[in-house]
């Protein structure tokens, strides 16, 4: 089977890249193993929250010249970064994913642990604030579903109380949740969201919250609404007479899964071929050129061929990178990887210290072409967290790197 472009990886970077290429008139296939980092997202995107020396960043675009030359943003350049930053909202909106936030300025949000976290853009059901000293209101009612253990109401209350808010915690018990509650493993965010997508259940929940309201001006709820669409979120905001704040929960993430499903749907609607539940097992190479790839489901007899290939397989979490006791490697093509030579330099014993291995990844040139033994692969590109050169956790730039490199790679392929 021949395509113009084949994307390896169905996460944020792979979907954005595939969507842009497909809409540019190219014939694309995307191979995805299934679960990816979007399923663990809290519904927000970080572009650049800190510099390597720990300095907080308020305006990411202005901070790009301060980044090392190996950072993907430095390779893209400040001018194109600005263009891409302003193109993200329209692209996601065209897929049914509404985003809030300022394109050239960071905002702040309440994290699942009750602390304040930097965010660039976020889904419209996430509350963003212009200052890290924000206070959503005077009094907050924090509401959980009885038996749901992945939403820590006490942490959130402590965080808001530090901001001078008075907090009360309540739990709502709904008959529709009884089947889930009978099995603790079933009382998870996605299963709850499937029940909460039913209009009558959302109405019952909203009524239960209203009955518990006293003089609070703010209601904090877990992000377990809107798996299929944002209808239940809109309904709650319209029905409950208070400022509603949705706070992320322990994974899996309902907002993240919703975003992934909508982007996948848009890719397929544009004519893209989505090969889900499959895994690329190897490639046929010739003279610095990828001729074809093989997948687990199709076997070695059926080749997937393309003019260009985009590796968006993610980092260690998504198995886009592997670590052995001796080295870090990229498993599909055997690409050159930037990493510390000694395993003792990969990590710090202090769990909360900067872990160097997070910055390991595939080496690329300025056009995001990777290499094998120093030789550039002319029809292969790398996109997203598989790329080395930046510690995305340290700099709070994981989603930004995924999106910005996807934009850059798709532009290189289409000749923009």
Task: State the helical fraction.
Answer: 25-40%
Mean pLDDT figure: 94
- What would the principal axes of the Cα set say about the shape? globular
CATH class of the largest domain: Alpha Beta
Report the major sheet: 7 strands, mixed
Number of helices in the DSSP assignment: 12
Fraction of residues in β-strands: 15-25%
Total number of domains: 2
Quote the distance from N terminus to C terminus: 27 Å
The number of E-state strands comes to: 22
Secondary-structure arrangement, i.e. CATH architecture of the largest domain: 3-Layer(bba) Sandwich
CATH superfamily membership of the largest domain, which one? FAD/NAD(P)-binding domain
CATH topology of the largest domain: FAD/NAD(P)-binding domain
Class computed from helices, strands and strand pairing: alpha/beta
Summarize the structure in short:
The chain is α/β, with parallel strands linked by helices and 416 residues long.
Describe the structure.
With 416 residues, this protein is an alpha/beta fold. It has twelve helices and 22 strands. The protein has helices at 12-23, 60-63, 72-76, 78-93, 153-161, 178-181, 189-196, 199-212, 231-239, 254-269, 392-395, 398-414; strands at 2-8, 28-32, 44-45, 99-100, 107-110, 116-119, 121-123, 139-145, 166-172, 218-222, 243-247, 273-276, 280-285, 290-295, 299-311, 322-323, 328-329, 337-338, 361-362, 371-372, 375-376, 380-382. Strands 1, 2, 12, 13, 14, 15 and 22 form a seven-stranded mixed beta sheet that branches. Strands 9-8-10-11 form a four-stranded parallel beta sheet, sandwiched between helices. The chain has a three-stranded antiparallel beta sheet with strand order 3-7-4. It is globular. The two termini are 27 Å apart. The model has no long low-confidence stretch (mean pLDDT 94).
């Amino acid at each position: 089977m021949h395509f113009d472009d084949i994307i390896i990886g169905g996460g944020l970077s792979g979907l954005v890249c595939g969507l842009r290429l497909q809409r540019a008139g190219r014939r694309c296939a995307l191979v995805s193993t299934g679960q990816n980092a979007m399923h663990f997202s809290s519904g927000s995107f970080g572009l650049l929250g800190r510099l390597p020396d720990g300095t907080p960043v308020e305006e990411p675009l202005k901070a790009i010249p301060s980044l090392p030359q190996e950072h993907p943003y430095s390779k893209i350049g400040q001018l194109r970064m600005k263009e891409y930053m302003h193109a993200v909202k329209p692209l996601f909106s065209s897929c049914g994913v509404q985003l809030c936030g300022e394109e050239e300025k960071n905002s702040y949000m309440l994290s699942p642990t009750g602390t304040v976290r930097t965010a660039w853009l976020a889904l419209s059901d996430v509350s963003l604030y212009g200052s890290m000293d924000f206070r959503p209101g005077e009094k907050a009612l924090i509401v959980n579903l009885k038996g749901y253990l992945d939403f820590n109401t006490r942490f959130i209350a402590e965080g808001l109380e530090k901001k001078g808010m008075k907090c009360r915690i309540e739990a709502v018990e709904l008959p529709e949740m009884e089947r889930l509650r009978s099995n603790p493993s079933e009382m998870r965010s996605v299963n709850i969201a499937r029940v909460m997508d039913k209009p009558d259940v959302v109405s019952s929940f909203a009524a239960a919250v209203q009955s518990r309201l006293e003089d609070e001006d703010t209601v904090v709820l877990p992000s377990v609404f809107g798996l299929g669409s944002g209808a239940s979120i809109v309904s709650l905001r319209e029905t409950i007479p208070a400022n509603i704040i949705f706070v992320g929960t322990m994974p899996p993430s309902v907002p993240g899964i919703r975003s992934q499903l909508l982007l996948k749907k848009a890719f397929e609607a544009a004519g893209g071929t989505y090969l889900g539940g499959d895994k690329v097992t190897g490639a046929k190479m010739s003279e610095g050129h990828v001729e074809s790839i093989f997948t687990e489901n199709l076997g070695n007899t059926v080749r997937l061929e393309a003019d260009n290939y985009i590796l968006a397989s993610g980092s260690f979490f998504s198995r886009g990178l592997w670590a052995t006791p001796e080295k870090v490697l990229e498993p599909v093509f055997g690409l050159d990887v930037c990493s510390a030579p000694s395993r003792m330099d990969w990590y710090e014993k202090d769990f909360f210290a900067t872990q160097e291995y997070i910055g390991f990844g595939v080496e690329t040139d300025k056009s995001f072409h990777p290499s094998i033994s120093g030789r550039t692969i002319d029809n292969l590109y790398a996109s997203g967290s598989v790329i080395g050169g930046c510690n995305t956790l340290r700099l709070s730039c994981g989603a930004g790197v995924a999106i910005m490199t996807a934009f850059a790679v798709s532009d290189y392929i289409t000749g923009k």
